[in-house]
Design a protein that fits this description.
By secondary structure, this protein is α+β, with helices and mostly antiparallel strands. It has 3 domains: 2-62, Roll (Transcription Regulation, Sacy, Chain A), CATH 2.30.24; 75-173, PRD domain (PTS-regulatory domain, PRD, Orthogonal Bundle), CATH 1.10.1790; 177-287, PTS-regulatory domain, PRD, CATH 1.10.1790.10. The protein is built from 11 helices and 6 strands. The protein has helices spanning 64-67, 75-92, 98-116, 126-132, 134-151, 159-172, 176-197, 206-224, 234-244, 246-263, 269-287, and strands at residues 2-3, 9-16, 19-23, 29-33, 46-47, 54-57. The protein has a 6-stranded antiparallel β-sheet with strand order 1-6-4-3-2-5. A hairpin with a 2-residue loop joins strand 2 (9-16) and strand 3. Helix 4 (126-132) packs across helix 5. The longest helix is centred in the middle third of the chain and has 22 residues, at 176-197. It is elongated and about 75 Å long. The model is unreliable at 1-6 (pLDDT under 50).
């Protein structure tokens, strides 16, 4: 499901007062969202652009029962969630679908209820999000400011990690559970590197960012259980690194053992050599 930019829509189904499923001029099904857009509307009536806050083309069948989730959420929350998504799309240069609007609106609505009842809900993977998804976390911080201003409340900064997590899941097309697994694994491997090299890694360096990005891509392969074909010409690199950085070799062996133990995935020679190259760069940055 992607964002639509059509003009006049024809109502096909009323979901609730604020959401309708309609047909655009090309005959495509779209979800149209706007305050009161479905109020007193009937099937085959026109919906004009001035009535709509956002539209999404339905590329996949969406159960209208799922869309009625919006019925329990005040429109101001949906509107604020869409503003956060618009900001995230601009900063991350991606397009999100209506699923993110549903999940983010539901999350913010729940968080508001808990806040007003005086309940504190602890946030998961707080540090991992801050360390490995800095752009998404910064967007989460801006989102918290937007929510606080709109609803005259004071969400803590921890809420930024929860919002960032929704963006990460939507961007990488993985479940929350998978993303938590990946972030925990990346955190564990960073700790292995720091322990083996007896260093504290500088998180604001290009070498660190590249290492984390490489690990994320590696774990896409690990979780899919697909082995990447070996790359020719790696033997020379391996020999060179082995002679100059014996501690790096041991470190990468420990990483490979960790991945085997936790995910039952045997790292290829190519996997290990790329890990070595990144660890060498990390080690060298700590010496400067």
């Amino acid at each position: 499901m992607k964002e639509d930019t059509g003009q006049i829509l024809i109502v096909d189904k009323i979901v609730n007062n604020n959401i309708v499923i309609a047909k655009d001029f090309r005959g495509r099904e779209v979800v149209a969202i706007g305050k009161g857009v479905g109020f007193r509307k009937r099937k085959n009536e026109a919906v004009h652009r001035s009535e709509i806050m956002k539209t999404y083309v339905l590329l996949d069948k969406v159960d209208s029962g799922v869309l009625t989730l919006f019925e329990e959420i005040q429109f101001e929350v949906i509107e604020t969630s869409q503003k956060i998504i618009d900001y995230a799309q601009e900063k991350l240069n991606v397009k999100f679908n209506v699923n993110l609007l549903m999940s983010l609106s539901d999350h913010i609505n729940f968080a508001l209820i808990q806040y007003r009842q005086g309940n504190h809900v602890p946030k998961l993977v707080n540090e991992e999000v801050k360390r490995f998804y800095k752009e998404e976390y910064h967007i989460g911080e801006i989102a918290v400011q937007m929510i606080n201003e709109r609803f005259q409340i004071l969400f803590s900064k921890d809420e930024a990690t929860a919002i960032a997590f929704h963006l990460i899941t939507a961007t990488e097309n993985k479940s929350n559970h998978q993303m938590m697994i990946i972030m925990k694994a990346v955190s564990d491997i960073v700790k292995i590197v720091e322990d083996y090299l007896n260093v504290s890694l500088h998180e604001d360096t290009i070498a660190y960012s590249r290492f984390v990005i490489h690990l994320k891509f590696l774990f896409k392969t690990v979780l899919s259980k697909q082995n990447v074909p070996e790359v020719a010409g790696m033997d020379f690199i391996f020999t060179q690194i082995k002679s100059e950085y014996k501690n790096v070799i041991e470190c990468v062996k420990k990483i490979a053992d960790y991945i085997m133990e936790k995910f039952n995935y045997r790292c290829t020679d190519g996997d290990c050599i790329y890990l070595m190259l990144h660890v060498v760069r990390l080690y060298e940055t700590t010496l400067n």
